[in-house]
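Appendix B, example 12.
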Amino acid sequence: MESHIVKVIKAIYITHDVKCFTVEKPAGFDFIPGQATEVSINLPLWKNQLRPFTFTCLREKDYLEFMIKIYRDHEGVTNMLGRTNAGAELILHDVFGAIQYKGPGVFIAGGAGITPFISIFRDLYNKNQIEGNSLIYSNKTSEDVIMEGELQEMLKDNFIKLFTRENVLGFRGRRIDRAYLIDHISDFGQHFYVCGPSGFVKSITKDLNDLGASMDIIIIEM
């Protein structure tokens, strides 16, 4: 397994619990938008604790970027990353990931499950090919939305936000369930990209499949 030690160039919180890391890009390092790598912190007690994180930058940039949800309620890797700042070192391992762009469709994300879609949208937007894609993005509250301004800019009216734990003016507090999919999707023959917590992905994949979307057009990552 190949690994690369990289320096953190910048680390800033972009929501109350999501931190964006900009790190050095090793020579020859490449990924496909939607892919991830396993990351560890280059400290004696942490270097063997690998966690998967998705690249969120454009692949042609001269840096790499990750948007990582920080869980402060237990002493894990993300808690430590919450205390990791510019100048620290991370270790990058193999590149992998099931989510890759196959053609226009509906992207369905729950919480931090948006991260594989960010590099895909940025890539499509950069190439003027984002038309025909839409995003349904579910979060507990409006404070949890990652990269709201940029997603809105790229997707315009094809960016739908749902909140499960609050009713914000102009938005309905509801979940993405079978009834929601029936109400909001007219074509179950297009591509579907689903990413989020495993229960979220399983439930939505089953609903899509029941409504006529074949498993070969549903691209998932849990």
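The mean pLDDT is 93. The first strand starts at residue 4 and ends at 13.
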